[in-house]
Specification:
single chain, 263 residues, alpha/beta, Rossmann fold, 2 domains, seven-stranded parallel beta sheet, Short-chain dehydrogenase reductase sdr, oxidoreductase, NAD(P)-bd_dom_sf, Sc_DH/Rdtase_CS
Length: 263
């Protein structure tokens, strides 16, 4: 195999992406689809899911709340029907959670953030691993973390706690599943351009009583490259981690963030 060919996923790879109808998830879904993979996505947003499936014929999907075990079961019924097996799981579901001082965060907001960001990764990994073990196509589990999984993040404690936990889960599963040939890695996106980041900036600006413009500049000043990353940057890393060229990469936590120095 030529070097350049080893850096692309093999055609026909069977891929499941959680929260795949918008943002980073949709960018990853489109990238795998363009590379010739069979892609199934799930998303809680039915309108966004319908839009993606209409815009990208050949993709399949299941409406689901990734934190609800019965919904996860429905997703895997869709995987069985449409893909007939699984080679790559991209555990992408996540929410921003509350932006507030710890004493002002209520228990429901904490629990919902952990349920979506962390529990969903458990539910999907638990169901996906037997299928990945049966794959003969360089199987891979990719966990979507965040730069907040390697740095402290004041006023975003639930989010940061969930993302640090994903790093521990990734490294533990890499050890557990390595003997069966299943690779497990995490991608930690940094400050990603888009509507979700705009909302995070606005909420943090309000919490700190400064303007959104000043808050945006503060974020940029913390990045060594002084620019945000894009969803396509993250998707490119997911493609590489699923390629033959990454066959000996496991247990790795890869920041795609322009080197965020602090939060």
């Amino acid at each position: 195999m030529a070097l350049h060919e080893s850096l692309r996923p093999a055609p026909g790879l069977r891929v499941l992406i959680t929260a795949g109808a918008g943002g980073i998830g949709a960018a990853i879904a489109r990238a795998f689809h363009a590379a010739g993979a069979q892609v199934h996505v799930c998303d809680i947003d039915r309108l966004a899911l319908d839009r993606l499936l209409t815009e990208s014929p050949g993709l399949t999907g299941t409406p689901a709340d990734a934190s609800v075990p019965s919904d996860v079961d429905a997703v895997f019924e869709g995987v069985r029907h449409h893909l007939g097996g699984l080679d790559v799981l991209v555990n992408n579901a996540g929410i921003a959670g509350p932006t507030a001082a710890i004493e002002d965060i209520d228990a429901a907001a904490w629990e919902r953030t952990l349920a979506v960001n962390l529990d969903s990764q458990f539910h999907f990994a638990r169901r996906a691993v037997p299928l990945l073990k049966a794959s003969g196509a360089n199987p891979s589990l990719i966990a979507m973390g965040s730069v907040a999984g390697r740095l402290g993040y004041a006023y975003r404690t639930p989010y940061a706690a969930s993302k640090w936990a994903i790093v521990g889960m990734t490294r533990s599963l890499a050890i557990e599943l390595g003997p069966q040939g299943v690779r497990v890695n995490a991608i930690l996106p940094g400050v990603v351009e888009g509507a979700r980041m705009d909302g995070v900036i606005a909420a943090r600006a309000s919490a700190l009583d400064i303007s959104p413009q000043a808050m945006r500049q503060q974020y940029l000043d913390k990045i060594s490259l002084r620019r945000m990353v894009t969803a396509d940057d993250v998707a490119a890393t997911a493609l590489f981690l699923s390629s033959p060229g990454a066959r000996n990469l496991t247990g790795q936590v890869i920041s795609v963030d322009g080197n965020v120095e602090y939060l």
